[in-house]
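Researcher: Next entry in the queue.
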Amino acid sequence: MTLFVAADTSGAGLGNVFPMSAEVDLFSISHQDLGDGVHKGFGENPPDNNLIQVTYDRSDPGIPATRLDTLVNTNFGVNVNDVDVIIVAAGANFTLSDGTLTIGNGFTFPVGVTDNPTGSVLVVYDTSDNNGTGICVRKEGDGAGTFSIEEPENVILYHELSHAFHLANGDPLSSVASGCTASPEENRAETDENDMRDQLGLPHRDATDHCGNPGCQSSVSSCCIIASVASGSIYSETVKTLRNVRDGVLRCSECGFDFFNHLYEDYYAFSPEVCRLMARSPDLQELIRARFLVPLTTVLDLMQAHCIEQLSAEDLGLRFASRVTEAPELSRTSASDIDVALAIIGGDSAIETSTAIAAELGLLLRQRASPSPYVQWALMRPIAMILEALSWHLDGMTTRQIGSHLGMLFEDWATQMPLSSVWNSLSKYSLNEELGFLERTLLRTTESRRRFGQRLVEVLMADRAVLVGERWRG
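Model: Structure for this entry, 474 residues:
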């Protein structure tokens, strides 16, 4: 087994690295292969020093999964330690030792070159989706100079792994080319890349053109891994809803983008392990889908109805009732189901869960998810709110009462959004823009703005705190 993910920079440069991002992208390459009862599927061993060994007992018949299988389970003999390929999952700020920025790119280095201080074939690739702006490449059949299709990070990694495979196998082609013409080696990698595009349902890239431009938003980047596995597809309506929140709300403001980055890092510190628990238990997969994912997409819709559409309490309650009627997972939820779900996400050891593996999930969330204020605010509290509303529904509360109570919960939740240091990095103009964005999307009332403003003033430098006070005085 010869494919590894680096837990640090491996001496390849300076900047942030996100090994969990590489694991998620490799999981995507495996076609989310969690095994079939006979084969164990995708996994990894515990870290050893700075390296995480990838494991793969393949059950998926696809071309990308087969290539990953070969990379993981072939001893290429690159070095005597059987560490043939190392992946460094770079953040947007990562710089190679020669000063090259990795943002929007991937690089594969053979043994012995200056940018590769390891004794293995080294892959360094950008996991930030070009810092959220995306990369466009030329679509097969388009004219020269036209860049119209996205190059998501899992595709970038698969492309680089093509280079790594052939370097480890000792059969690289010429990398000499001019202009945008793909060299023989790049042509082969881009041809391989199209196999991954087929798996993702993306258009083929023109394998003769190696240029690209910034500006394409990726719709299939490694977002929502738990939702993808639990709902059965990266194209499910659940995953689509979560991506829309990410790209249509969070990534539309500087502070929202910063919030998403914190959430992303904390979320992927535990989500792959949740997927492995689901692989062991179809019942747990269904529990997560019915008790967590459906409530999450429901509450996001209701939050939008309250904060952006500004529905009245009666109409918000009617929207809730409609969502319950439309979703069998919600309409069939019992009081004991709610207790189990709340016990899992709340870490309440006094309430027994239905199965040992559900209890294992609860322990994992308590240890790895609950400490994150970003995960708590963006995921766990919203799910708990909709579960609480289902309890009111079972108790016979009227739609107006449910709408009123939900509105109050949403108002309190909105004011508690975690604050990071990014707020102090904003210019006064940008700060005003951020406040305006929050007024339009999250902080519906004067009172919610006043309460959030009080928290914000406490972390801001004096001149910016005055600006907030003047805008949201109360």
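Model: The longest helix spans residues 282-307.
Researcher: Noted, moving on.
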